[in-house]
Amino acid sequence: MPLTILPETMGKISQLGSLNEVITICENTECKPCIDFGHLHARNLGTLKDEKNFKNILTQIEKRLGNSTLKNLHCHFYPVEYTEKGEKRHRAVMEKNVFPQFKHFANLIKEFKMHPTLISESRDSQDIGALNMKKTMSKLNWI
Fold first, then answer.
1. CATH number of the domain that residue 69 is part of
2. What is the pLDDT of residue 6?
């Protein structure tokens, strides 16, 4: 069985793991990306608050790594708290006014006809986060 290595986008600004860096690693190896949307939100100081910024990420991945990589993307999703240095801590999906929110990504999964692996890293509630993502995608008739 083949082994796949997935470099992950990272949440601290000082770490290797920006979206561009991960895509570049994948362009030059047989690796596939692991896109951690909480990390990208923190690293970019809160940019994932609407569908437009999620779409920009997906478009970059598709343009540089191809449609097959995008359609089968491995993703981590949860809200995150951050400082000027990036990620501080994961938050729970049940909390109010936390970002990123899955609803901003869900419509794009359907629009881009993706079948991603979605991992919930919601603080102390990974199961609730996963069930919420499944429920959201079911409402969109995508699973």
1. 3.20.20.150
2. 98
Alpha-carbon distance 91 to 96, whole Å?
10
Whether 13 is in a domain gets the answer no
Q: Is 112 a member of any domain?
A: yes
In a domain, residue 6? The reply is no
Total domain count, the chain: 1
Give the predicted TM-score (pTM) of the model: 0.96
Distance CA 77, CA 104 (A): 11
Q: 141 — phi, psi (to 5°)?
A: 55, 45
Residue 143 has pLDDT above 80, yes or no: no
Contacts of residue 110, defined as CB under 8 A and 6 or more positions apart, other chains included, come to 137, 140, 142
Residue type, 43: R
Residue 108 scores a pLDDT above 90: yes
Strand 34-36 and strand 74-77: the pairing is: parallel
The strand order across the sheet containing 74-77 reads: 34-36, 74-77, 117-120
- Please give the Cα distance from 5 to 93 (Å, whole number): 28
Check residue 43 and give left, alpha or beta (phi > 0: left; psi -120 to 50: alpha): alpha
